[in-house]
Amino acid sequence: MSMKIKEEESIFPILAIDSLTDVMVSANADITLAFELIHPEVFTASDGEIDILSDAYVNAIKTLPVGYIVHKQDWYVEAEYTADFNNPTIKNGNYLAHANEKHFGERPHVVHKCYIYVTRPSMDAKTRSSKNSSLLKRHLVPKEMLQQSTWDAFMDSCAQFEYLLNGSGKIKARRLSPSEILGSEKETGLLDNYRSLSYNDRSLLETETSKDGSLKIGNKWVYMYVISELNDFPPAVTNSITYEPYSSDRYQIPVSTGAVLGIGMPFNHIFNQVIMIEDRGTINKNLVKEIKRHHSFSEWEKGNQVSMAYKDDFLLEMEKNGRVPVKAHFNVMIWANDRETAEAYKSTTASSIANLGFTPRQARHDISTIYWSCIPGNIAEIGVDNLLTSFVDEAVSLLAIETNYNDAGYSPSGIRMTDRFGYPLMVDLYDAPLKKGAIANRNTFIVGPSGSGKSFFTNNMVYYMLTAKMHVSIVDVGHSYKKLCETMGGRYITYSQDDPIAFNPFFFKTLNPSEEDEDALSELLLSLWKTDNERVTNAELTTIRDIVHSYYVFLRAKRLVGEKYYPCFDTFYDYTKVEFPAVFQKNGGREDVEFDLKNFLYVLKPYYDDGQYGFLLNSRKNIDLMDLPFVIYELDNIKDHPVLFPVTTIMIMNTYVRKLFSVKGTIKALIIEEAWKALTKEKFANFLRWASKTVRKHDGSLIVVTQELDDLIGSEVVKDAIINNSDIKILLDQKNYENRFKEIEGLLGLSEKQASIVQSVNRSIDHKRPPYREVCILLKDYAKVYGIEVSPTAYAAFTTRKDEVEEIHRLAKENYHNDMTRATTAWAGGERPGKQQLKVNSI
C-alpha cells in the first residue's frame, strides 16, 4: 500500500533565482549559492594529496559563519557509450577505427557530476525538525533575510569559500548560472534533473512513498541509506583508505574514504554530504548540560556512562585543540527502473557502508522528507533529528573527492584506450600535455617484460598515430609490425644477403642541405669514424662540418658548368680525398694537429665503392623514405652482426632526423625496439644523445621500447641519452619485478605514488569485460593507468602471436585472394583456414 504526496508544483521549495547574484531563494527565505566542482581523477592521488584536498575543504568550511550549511552533492548516473561513426577521427580512419567504435557502442558507464551548495538559513536549522518540512507546512519569512546587508555578507562568505577551494590547486569550483539551475530551451537544469533523477528529462514525475521504505519517482524505484547518528560511526575515520584490489603489501593505492560511497559504486546514486557550522559556545553549554543529566543516571545504565565519557572527550578536544564543531549528515540515494535491480543496488550500498565500519541504516519513514530537504537549495530543512555532532575534519573525511578520468571522448591525436572501469577514451600523449606544460618533449620510453603486451600496445598506438596523419618509422627485430604495415599500406624493408638494406644520407635533390641537415651528416660521420672512448676535439668537429659543407658547394659548382656528380658516400669520399686537402690547407688546417685526414679516410674506406660495406651508404633506391608516412625496417637477420646492426640502425636514425627537418606540420615518430641496445655503445652514444635532444625542436618523438630490466640498470648511456630525455614513460605489467622495483624507481626517478600506480597495473583484471590489459602512462610527475582493449578485428590486425599471424595469412591466401583486410575481418568473426567458411557480420 502506498501514500501519495500532494502535487509538487504548488509546494516546490525553491521560489526564485536572483539573476544578478545567481542566488537561489527557498520558500523559507533560505539563500543558497551553487557551484560545480571538478576533483582529481580516481586512483591518481597519494595519501598526502588526499589530505591536502581534505584540508582545503576544512579550511574553506571553517571560514563560514555559524549556522551556514555546506551541502555537497555527488551524482552518479548510468549511461551508455554512444558510437559516433560520423566523427572525423572515425570517418578518416580505416575499417579498424569503425570496428573499434562499434565494439564500444552501448558500453555502460557512470557519469559523475559534483555540486556544492552554500546555504545561509533564514532561521537556525537546529530549531527545525524534519516534521516541519515545507513538504508538510509553510513558514513565515524573517525580516533580516530581506536586508541587503544580509545578502552582502552572504556573498562575501561564499566568495572566500570559493577562493579557498580553488586556491588548493586540486579543486576547481565554478559558480552555476540561473540557466544551469533552472534549465534552458536546449538543456535541462539542476532542479529538473534532481526531480527526475536524470541528466536530460524535463518531465515532472509523480512521487509516492511506500511502507516498505521505498520512494517511487515516476518509474524509478528509490531507496536511501543514511549516516546521521554517532552510534553509526566506526571508532576512527581517516581521509583515505587503501583500495585493496589494486594494492599489494609493498605498494598501496589510496582513495578517499568517501570514494567508496561515490565513484566506487558504479550505478545510479546520489551521495549527499551535509556539514553545518556550529557555535562553540552553544555546543559547549548544551554538552555540559547533557553531561550533568547523564551523571544523574550514570549508576542506573551503562549506556549513560559511555555517552557521558564521549561528551567529556569531545569537550576536551574542542577546548584543548581548538577543533571546530559541526553538525553533519550523510545519505546515499540509489535508484533503478525496476525493483529487482534497485534491491540489488540497495544491498551493495549497505555492504559498502558496512565495509567502511559504519552501521548502515535505511531511511524508511523519513525517506521522502530527506529526499525533499536534499533538493538543491533546500538543505536547511534537513532537520535537527537527522544531524549528528562531530568535528569538521572528521565530517570532511567522508567527502567523496575523486572523479572519473577527464580524457576526451575524441581527440585528433589520441589513442583509443579505456579507463579502469572499461569506458572508452582517446588518450592524447602529445598535443594536450604539451599545451598544459605536463611535458616538454614527445620522447617516449616504453618498458614491458616479455608477454606483457608491449608490442600489442605499440601496434595500437602506432595505428592511431597514423590515423592522426603522423609519420612513423619503426626499427624492429621480430616482425611485430608486419601485419600493421600491410593494413596501413606502409613500406616494409627487410635485410637479406641478396638485397641488403641500403641508404643514401648524402642525397639532396637541390644539393643544398640546410645547416641542420649538414649537422646531422657530421654527427653520422663522427659516429662512423670514432671508436669507443675516443674523444672528439672541437677542431675535428669543425673540420668534418667543413668537409660536409664544402662538398655540397663543390657539387653545386660542378652542376652549374654541366658536370653531374651523384650525391652519395662514394663521391663524398672522393671529394674528401682529392679536393678537400687544398680547402683544408687554405683554411689554415694542419693535418698533424687539427685533423688526421688520412686516418679519417682509412677508417671510412670499408663504406666506399667495393669495400665490405660499400652498398650501405650509396643507394639509388629508398631515397624517398623521408616522404613516406609509414616505414618499417626489419633487422632480425642482422641483429647479431657487430657492425651492420648498429651502423644500419644509426643510418635509419639519420634518415629520421632528416625527415624532421624536411617534413613540416605533423609529428614525426621514430620507434626503436630492441635495436636501441646497439646504440648505447660509446661509439654511437653521442649520436643518440644528439638525436634525442634534437627531435623536440622539430615536432619529433623518439620512442624507445625495451623489455629486460637488466637492460636498464647500470647503463649511464640509457639514463643520460634515453631516460633523461623522455618526458613520456609507458610501463606495462611490472609485478614480476616487484622485489627489484626499487632499482627501477631510482633509475626512472619515480615517486612513491608513481611506483604504487605502476605496480597496480593488471592487479585486478575484470573478467566480466572483453579481454584487455593495462598500462601505466607517466608524464613527468603524473601517472595514470589505462586499459588496452580493442575490437576482435583490431586484435586480429595487431596480434603478434606467431600461430595467429600465420593462420590469418593462410586464410587470406586460401579464401580471400591475399586480401588481408577481408581475411583479418573474417578471422575476427571466427573463420579459420581449412574449415567451412563462417558467416561474418560486416563492420
TrEMBL record:
Domain TraG N-terminal Bacteroidetes: 3-52
Matches recorded under SUPFAM superfamilies: P-loop containing nucleoside triphosphate hydrolases (SSF52540)
UniProt domain TraG P-loop: residue ranges: 414-827
Pfam families to which the protein is assigned, alphabetical: DUF3875, P-loop_TraG
PANTHER family the UniProt entry points to: CONJUGATIVE TRANSFER: ASSEMBLY, PTHR38467
NCBIfam families the UniProt entry points to: Bac_Flav_CT_G
Name under which the protein is recorded: TraG family conjugative transposon ATPase
Gene transcribed to yield this protein: traG
